[in-house]
Specification:
single chain; alpha+beta; 6-stranded antiparallel sheet; about 15% helix; disordered N terminus; Beta-galactosidase 6
C-alpha cells in the first residue's frame, strides 16, 4: 500500500455530459457548429477502427462517452479498403460501417476524415501502393491520374455512408468530413499546382453533397465553404484562426502524446498541460476540440510507417489495451463536465479579454440583460509560486501555468493544474513462460542463390517498387569470379533501406572469397514505408552501392552498375505462409526441434509454439524482450513488427510488450509463430496479462472553500517502482 498521506477538501459542481443521439441538419457560423438549430461545443476523440478490433470497439466508445466526449473521429484507410484497383475490403477490423454504427448506437457523433491521404504514421500515408504504378502519376497535386483515383475512392466512401444513412443529414451520426490532410506542409513544393489542387479537392468534396460541413486541417487557404482547422499541442496559442469570420474555430488534432519510433523514448504529456491548452482554446472562442489520439491502439501486421513502433499513442487517455490512463482520462472528464455546465453562456455570451497582471489575464463571456456569466482566469506564469489576482472585487489564487473556470464569474469549479483524480499504473502478471526447448520448433529460412532467383536485372532495383509492399524483405544476389589476387576482401554496401543483412555462403564478413565463382546474397529490409512529404511516389529505398574492396584496392570490384543482379521478394517462410494455422499440408514447411544452444545468434529463423489463453478478461501481451527484430503471429494473425534490439539512448527497448487482442485467441492451443531476423532467445518469451492498480494521488485544498489562513497544497512528485510516494513538496502553509 502506498505510504502517502494528505489532507484534501474539494468542492466541484459538474454536470453530466449531454447525450447526443440524433443527427440533423449541420451548419455553422463564426461561433460553432449548429446541429438541428442548436449551437454545440464539442469534445471529440480519435479512435482508429483498424488499430483495434470490432470486439474492442463498444468498450472503447463507451469509455470515450463516459469521459465526456461527444464525437469519435477516425481516418479512413485507403490501402486497407482498396488493396487493388476496384477491389474493396470492408470486413473484420476494416468494417467502417459497423464502427460508425457502433458510435451511433452509443449516442455519439462521428467525424470522418476521408483524406484519402492520412499520414497518421501509417504505411505509405494510407495510399495503396498500386498507385505508384499508375502511369505519369504525381501524388497530391493538380495531376489528372492522381485526382481520378482520389475522387474515385472519396466518392466510394461517401456513397457507402449515404447508402447506410450515416450522415447527420440522413439522421446518422456523421457531422463532419475531412478532405486532404495537412497539405499546407508540402503545398509550396508544387508551385501553382498546389493551390490549384486545394481548390479542386474542396470543390470535389463539396459536390458530393454529404449534407455536413467539410474541413481541411492545417490549411489556411481552405476554400469556402470548407473550414480550415488547427493541428498541434497548443492551438490556443498557435492557431491564427479561421480564414473567414463565418467559420468556427476548430482543433482537429490535439496531440495527447506523440508517436514513438524505434530507438525513441515515449513522450509523456501531462493531464495538466492538455487541460490548460484545451481550456485556453475554449476561452478564445474555440468550439470543437479533438484529442489525437484518445485511444491509439496497435499497428497490427505491417501497417506502421517507417521506424514507427507497433504500439501507437499508448500514452493517450485510453492506452493501447483500452484501459483508462489516469489521471489523464479523469482530469479531462472533469474539464469536459465543467465546460458543458456553462456551454450555453459560452456560446451566447459576449466575449471580452483583459489583463489581470503581467502574465495573468481573464476571458469573460457575459450574456445581456443580467444573463449568465463565465470567466476563465489564466496564469501564464509557469514558475513555482501561485499568482494572486483580483477579479470583480474578489481575490483568487491561481497555481502556476493554470486556468480557473468560473461558470458564474464567482465560484471556481475547475482548475487545470489541480488534479483530483486517483493515479493508476499498469501491472503485468506472467501467465506462461516458454522456457522449455521441447515446446518449440524452428524453421531456418533459405538464403537464395543468384541462379535460383526469379527476377534478373542489369542494375540495382529500387526496393519498394520491386516488393510492391508485399513484404518487408528483398533479396539482392549476384555471383562473380575472382582469384587469389584479391586479399583481405571486405564487402562494402551503401543502402537506403532500413536494414541490410549480407550473407556469403559458408563465409563471414569481412568475407573470404574462393578462387573461381562466388555467390553473395544481401537482404534489404524496410521497417515500414514512408508516410509523408512531397513527391512520395519518387522515394528511393534499397541498395545504392555494392563493392568488394581488396587489400591493395587495385583489384576492387564495383557491382553497382552494368552488372547482372538476381532478386527475390520476401522470405520463403512468407511464401509458404508458415504462420498460417490453416496451411495447406502439401506446402507445409519442415519444422525441426529448436537448437539447444541459443547463445550464438541464429538469423532468419522462424519459431513456433502453442499456448492456452490466460484465464480472465484482462488484456494479453507477449513479452518479447529476449528477441531481436522480426514479426509475430498468433493463430495466423499478425500482432505486428518488433525491434526489441533497437535501444534508446537510455539503453531501453522502445517496446517489449506486444498486444494480443482477446479476439485473436482460442481457449487452448493457440499457435505462436515468430520470424526472427537477428537472432534471439525464444525460451525467455512469456505471455502476460495487463491490469491497472491505483496509486496515491496529488491533491489540494482550494482557498475558495476553506479559510484563507488554511491554504495548503500537497504535490506528489516522486514515486518508486511499487507506487510508493518518496517525496512530498509542501507549499504555502
Amino acid at each position: 500500500m502506498a505510504s502517502c498521506y494528505w489532507v484534501a477538501i474539494l468542492v466541484i459542481i459538474i454536470g453530466e455530459a449531454g447525450c447526443f443521439v440524433e443527427g440533423g441538419d449541420v451548419t455553422y457560423d463564426g461561433r460553432s457548429l449548429i446541429i438541428d438549430g442548436q449551437r454545440k461545443i464539442l469534445f471529440s476523440g480519435s479512435i482508429h477502427y483498424p488499430r483495434s478490433t470490432p470486439q474492442m470497439w463498444p468498450s472503447l466508445i463507451a469509455k470515450a462517452k463516459e469521459g465526456g466526449l461527444h464525437v469519435i473521429q477516425t481516418y479512413v484507410f485507403w490501402n486497407l479498403h482498396e488493396p487493388q484497383p476496384g477491389e474493396y475490403d470492408f470486413g473484420g477490423r476494416y468494417d467502417l460501417v459497423k464502427f460508425i454504427k457502433e458510435i451511433q448506437a452509443q449516442g455519439l457523433y462521428a467525424c470522418l476524415r476521408i483524406g484519402p491521404f492520412i499520414e497518421s504514421e501509417w504505411t505509405y500515408g494510407g495510399f495503396p501502393f498500386w498507385l505508384h504504378d499508375v502511369p505519369n502519376i504525381v501524388y497530391r497535386t493538380d495531376n489528372e491520374p492522381f485526382k481520378f483515383y482520389m475522387q474515385n475512392f472519396t466518392t466510394k466512401i461517401v456513397n457507402l455512408m449515404k447508402s447506410e444513412g450515416l450522415y447527420a443529414s440522413q439522421g446518422g451520426p456523421i457531422i463532419l468530413s475531412q478532405i486532404e490532410n495537412e497539405y499546407q506542409n508540402i503545398e509550396k513544393a508544387f508551385g501553382e499546382a498546389g493551390p490549384s489542387y486545394v481548390r479542386w479537392a474542396a470543390k470535389m468534396a463539396v459536390e458530393l453533397e454529404t449534407g455536413v460541413p467539410w474541413v481541411m486541417c492545417k490549411q489556411t487557404d481552405a476554400p469556402d465553404p470548407v473550414i480550415n482547422t488547427c493541428n498541434g499541442m497548443r492551438c490556443g496559442q498557435t492557431f491564427t484562426g479561421p480564414n473567414s469570420p463565418n467559420k468556427p474555430s476548430m482543433w482537429t488534432e490535439n496531440w495527447t502524446s506523440f508517436y514513438q519510433v524505434y530507438g525513441g523514448e515515449p513522450y509523456i504529456r501531462s493531464a495538466e498541460d492538455i487541460a490548460f491548452h484545451v481550456t485556453l482554446f475554449i476561452a478564445k472562442n474555440g468550439s470543437y476540440i479533438n484529442y489525437y489520439m484518445y485511444h491509439g491502439g496497435t499497428n497490427f501486421g505491417r501497417t506502421a510507417s517507417a521506424y514507427i513502433i507497433t504500439s501507437y499513442y499508448d500514452q493517450a487517455p485510453l492506452d493501447e489495451y483500452g484501459l483508462t490512463r489516469q489521471p489523464k482520462w479523469g482530469h479531462l472528464k472533469e474539464l469536459h463536465a465543467a465546460i458543458n455546465s456553462c456551454s450555453e453562456t459560452l456560446l451566447q455570451g459576449n466575449p471580452s479579454n483583459f489583463s489581470l497582471g503581467q502574465l495573468q489575464e481573464a476571458y469573460v463571456f457575459e450574456e445581456e440583460a443580467g444573463g449568465g456569466c463565465v470567466a476563465f482566469l489564466i496564469n501564464n506564469d509557469g514558475r513555482d509560486d501561485n499568482a494572486t489576482v483580483q477579479f470583480r472585487n474578489m481575490s483568487f489564487q491561481l497555481p502556476p501555468k493554470s486556468i480557473s473556470i468560473l461558470p458564474d464569474c464567482i465560484n471556481v469549479i475547475f482548475n487545470t493544474a489541480k488534479v483530483n483524480v486517483e493515479y493508476n499504473e499498469r501491472r503485468t502478471n506472467v501467465s506462461e513462460v516458454f522456457n522449455e526447448a521441447e515446446r518449440w520448433q524452428q524453421f531456418k529460412d533459405l538464403i537464395p542463390n543468384f541462379l535460383d532467383t526469379p527476377l534478373k536485372a542489369d542494375t540495382l532495383l529500387e526496393h519498394m517498387n520491386t516488393t510492391k509492399d508485399k513484404s518487408d524483405y528483398l533479396w539482392y544476389t549476384f555471383s562473380f569470379q575472382t582469384n587469389s589476387s584479391c586479399t583481405e576482401p571486405v564487402l562494402h554496401v551503401e543502402s537506403l533501406a532500413h536494414v541490410a543483412h549480407a550473407f556469403k555462403f559458408t563465409m563471414d564478413i569481412p568475407i573470404g572469397l574462393n578462387d573461381g565463382m562466388n555467390n553473395i546474397s544481401i537482404l534489404s529490409v524496410m521497417a515500414g514505408l514512408p508516410d509523408s512529404g512531397a513527391f512520395l511516389e519518387k522515394r528511393f529505398a534499397g541498395l545504392a552501392t555494392v563493392e568488394i574492396h581488396c587489400g591493395d584496392m587495385e583489384n576492387s570490384y564495383n557491382f553497382t552498375n552494368n552488372y547482372t543482379w538476381g532478386y527475390e521478394v520476401g522470405l520463403l517462410g512468407e511464401k509458404l505462409q508458415i504462420y498460417n494455422t490453416e496451411q495447406n499440408l502439401e506446402n507445409a514447411p519442415e519444422w525441426t526441434k529448436i537448437d539447444q544452444d541459443l547463445s550464438s545468434k541464429q538469423p532468419l529463423t522462424w519459431y513456433k509454439t502453442a499456448f492456452d489463453a490466460p484465464v480472465g478478461d484482462d488484456p494479453v501481451a507477449l513479452n518479447l524482450s529476449s528477441m531481436g527484430k522480426g514479426e509475430a503471429w498468433v493463430n495466423g494473425l499478425s500482432v505486428g513488427r518488433y525491434w526489441v534490439s533497437f535501444y534508446t539512448s537510455e539503453g531501453n527497448s522502445s517496446q517489449t510488450l506486444y498486444h494480443v487482442p482477446r479476439s485473436f485467441l482460442k481457449s487452448t492451443e493457440n499457435v505462436l509463430v515468430l520470424m526472427e531476423e537477428f537472432g534471439g532467445d525464444p525460451l525467455q518469451i512469456s505471455v502476460e496479462t495487463i491490469s491497472l492498480t491505483n496509486l496515491c494521488q496529488p491533491s489540494f485544498i482550494s482557498n475558495h472553500y476553506i479559510p484563507s489562513n488554511f491554504n495548503i497544497f500537497l504535490y506528489l512528485n516522486e514515486w518508486d517502482d511499487l507506487g510508493i510516494c518518496l517525496r512530498l513538496r509542501c507549499c504555502k502553509f
